[in-house]
Design a protein that fits this description.
The structure holds 2 protein chains of 2 kinds. By secondary structure, chain A is mainly alpha-helical. In chain A, about 75% of the residues lie in helices and about 0% in strands. Helix content of chain B is about 40%, strand content about 15%. Classes of the chains: A mainly alpha, B alpha/beta.
């Protein structure tokens, strides 16, 4: 076998290896169903939205009743309701994070299906919530905001 | 500050609209309208005069930044105070919003006190 044949053989075996892996990946994605993982995650978003709205509806009822209590009790109940409203923002934040993961999954699924080269991504102003360690705090935003004129 | 001012809140998440509406009510702002994206917000603003816009950034089809730009480019709307409330917290986001003429910037998740303070500062009453 000359050198060219040897190279060709190695190339064919590498290609076979790649094709096998693509088939396995396709099967694994297929097992999730069409857009299965994305659907599951979207379900999480609507479930948390439903729960957050239920929780807030309950807090609104507590506030409505609080209006008939004495001032100290009313104040305490309203402060608790405020904390419930503030905490309900988890749904918006987690929803945005999940939407980001869903887009990534859909992109992986379509690339594996067609095996086209990924398109170069442009720097974007739509990144969603930053991860905890790199997220700016309100006071960092305030200093940046003040520094711009 | 006139607590009866007309406030437009804009967010594509109903949960966030409800949070904003409740927190504003606790601050005695009861004259609150809602829109779920920039285009709807713009239609609301052009239909009726408003005194304050509190908007999310990341919405489709029209983002909060585009809404802000359109508001600032409209002779009839350009002076309305506009507070961005968003999870987008990168330096380039704050710069882009500031360049587009945002009045203040609140990063999500936020608390009631931050909302109160930013509205106060926009209307010159800290």
């Amino acid at each position: 076998m000359d050198k060219a044949d040897e190279t060709l053989e190695r190339l064919v075996s590498a290609l076979e290896f790649i094709v096998d892996h693509i088939q396995i990946t396709r099967r694994e994605l297929g097992a999730l169903g069409a857009g299965g993982a994305a659907d599951e995650l979207e379900e999480v978003v609507s479930e948390t939205a439903r729960a957050a709205n239920e929780i807030m509806a309950a807090a609104e009822s507590v506030e409505a009743v609080a209006a008939y209590t004495d001032p100290k009790v009313r104040e305490a109940l309203q402060a608790a309701a405020t904390r419930i409203y503030e905490a309900s923002a988890f749904q918006d934040i987690t929803g945005q994070r999940i939407a980001k993961v869903v887009r990534a999954l859909q992109s992986i699924e379509s690339r594996v299906a067609t095996l086209v080269k990924p398109e170069p991504s442009e720097p974007s102003l739509l990144n969603g919530p930053q991860l905890g360690r790199s997220a700016a705090t309100q006071s960092e935003i305030d200093s940046l905001f003040e520094s711009l004129s | 500050m006139n607590k009866n001012m007309r406030v437009l809140i804009v967010d594509d998440y109903n949960t966030m609209l409800r949070i904003l509406r409740n927190l504003l009510r606790q601050l005695d702002f009861n004259n609150v309208e809602e829109a779920t994206d920039g285009e709807e917000a713009l239609r609301c603003l052009r239909r009726d005069p408003h005194d304050l816009v509190i908007s999310d950034w990341n919405m489709q089809p029209m983002t909060g930044l585009e809404l802000l730009r359109q508001v600032r480019a409209d002779a009839g709307l350009r002076r309305i105070p506009f507070i961005m409330v968003t999870a987008e917290s990168k330096t380039e986001n704050v710069i882009a919003a500031k360049q587009a003429g945002v009045s203040n910037y609140i990063v999500k998740p936020f608390n009631a006190e931050t909302l109160r303070a930013k509205i106060g500062s926009v209307f010159g009453a800290a």
